[in-house]
Amino acid sequence: MARAGLTTERLVQAGAELADEVGFDQVTVSALARRFDVKVASLYSHLKNSQDLKTRIALLALEELADRAADALAGRAGKDALIAFANVYRDYARQHPGRYTAARLRLDPETAAASAGIRHSQMTRAILRGYDLTEPDQTHAVRLLGSVFHGYVSLEMAGSFSHSAPDSQVSWSRALDALDALLRNWPAP
User: Any idea where the HTH tetR-type domain is (predicted)?
Assistant: First the structure.
């Protein structure tokens, strides 16, 4: 029988908060049970196992990110849209480091196809329409943007840019300017 007050949604939200506090890799059903001061077995009516919990946290993170990105992109185009989109990812990673890691969890194809990950791709492609890219260049550009955003954010979160001037915000702005210039002048194959 399920413990009163515990729902799958509440457990996933608490798991996401735990991920932000201690790191996504440390999130388990056992750790969540300790947080609620319940026996692990009482959570199995809501969650299959730790992998199910992590998958649900990943889906929550993808949804949160997609919602923030959609809000940031409303009414924007071109470089303005690119910068707004990039800043959503960077800000989310800073505010929710565990959830940001969760959003990178490899999902099975069926789960991925039903996730907000599709919205991320659609929004990225919508931004790229402003740069007049066609296939396969559009796919290359989607991969480039994801790599730059994730790579920069990951290095910054690891402290890689905190040891020297200029401030990493300056470098971030320069990187986005460079991406905009590259996208406007995409090289021919």
Answer: 5-65
For the chain, the average pLDDT equals: 93
Amino acid at 29: V
Residue 40 and residue 84 in contact, taking contact as beta carbons nearer than 8 Å: no
Band of pLDDT at residue 4, cut at 50, 70 and 90: low
Residue type at 24 in one-letter notation: F
Q: How many helices (H) and strands (E) does the chain have?
A: 9, 0
Q: Which residues lie closer than 8 Å to 184 by C-beta, 6 or more apart?
A: 131
Tokens of 142: 């989607």
Residues with Cβ within 8 Å of residue 38, at least 6 apart in sequence: 3, 6
Greatest pairwise CA separation for the chain in angstroms: 62
Q: What is the mean pLDDT of residues 105-122?
A: 94
* Cα-Cα end-to-end distance for the chain: 61
Which structure tokens are listed for 96?
């929710």
Per DSSP, the residues of 69-116 read HHHHHTT--HHHHHHHHHHHHHHHHHH-HHHHHHTTPPPPHHHHHTST
The C-alpha atoms of residue 17 and residue 35 are separated, in whole angstroms, by: 11
User: Hey, what are 121's tokens?
Assistant: 């791709």
